[in-house]
UniProtKB/TrEMBL annotation:
Its main location: cytoplasm. It catalyses: D-fructose 6-phosphate + L-glutamine = D-glucosamine 6-phosphate + L-glutamate. The keyword Cytoplasm applies. One of its GO terms (cellular component) is cytosol. This is Glutamine--fructose-6-phosphate aminotransferase [isomerizing]. The active site is at residue 368. Keywords: Aminotransferase, Cytoplasm, Glutamine amidotransferase, Repeat, Transferase. GO terms for molecular function: carbohydrate derivative binding; glutamine-fructose-6-phosphate transaminase (isomerizing) activity.
Amino acid sequence: EKGGFKHFMLKEIYEQPRAVRDTVQGRISLDTGRVYLDPMNITEGEFRRFDRVMIAACGTSWHAGLAGKYMIEQLARVPVEVDYSSEFRYRNPVLDERTLLIVISQSGETADTIAALREAKERDARVLAICNVQGSMITREADGTILTHAGPEIGVASTKAFTAQMVALYLFALYLGQLRGIISSDEARRHAQQLAELPVKIEHLLSDTDRVEELAKEFFRATDFLYLGRGINFPIALEGALKLKEISYIHAEGYPAGEMKHGPNALIDERLPVVVINTREQGNRASELRYEKTHSNIVEVKAREGIVISVLTEGDEMSSKVSDHVIEIPAASDLLSPILAIIPLQLLAYHIAVRRGCDVDQPRNLAKSVTVE
Ligand code: M6R
């Protein structure tokens, strides 16, 4: 059942090329760049009229939602707010019929997220679900669903569902951007091409994991980890930290790289591994700027004796030179590179947890789906 893998989590990490391919399959045309969503009770007219998107989710799905905010705001130019489902419900959220609530859930049975969905429907908002289980409560109650085709996820730590969720959000952002006339057909075709190339890049990443295993060997005794990222890499920092906490029981925190000087810098010493995600898209000004700023953050961590493990784009020299350790990922566009960047971090958490003798697929105190509020 584990297909020759030692744990479900590892098997599921290796299923990501397929999960991504299946989630994209049939939903975007390489010739026209047009996105086709599954039939739903939300009309194109309604999608054009929404003036606000809200996202509610928990845990890893919430991290996907944070990444989705960058995608939707960038590609469709609609303001997006992201909430933990458990908070959304209790803060008397402002929403009406021009608000679209997106709920994201692997299982479709998370009680907090179901409660958020019901709350929104009561206030006349439309609800779109991104979900991995057809027929689950969330898919039955939402006005529409984009199914992630990651396949059953058994390991408590979510991996392939997360990358599939980000792909679904990207498709949705493209869809909305096209409907609203923000994305030209040339651009749409380019996006379709980039999405089509993703699975091969993931395969490439997974074909050589020696570096990550060496790092696990070097750092599995650490008591704390910090993960930093800027822009869309910030949710990846959070997700990298969650994976580590969840399965290895090492204290880890994710932070926006720019926040370090506002407090967390005080934590840095020669024993603290700091994982910095600093990918770049050559020729994209916003990405280059973010890259340079994060590069300065790496230099600052080094100046305080911290140990820097950087996740960088293949061939990057500048940040590579100032880092203690480097994990390279294939080049990709700014909004798609997080789908690659998370993979070595999933593997790092996995190999550290195995070395610590933890029960990777069934971490203590956790359940795969949380059906109570
Ligand atoms: O099934 P859901 O996506 O709604 O679950 C949400 C969280 O409980 C889930 O992502 C949790 O954080 C995972 N254990 C993370 O790996």
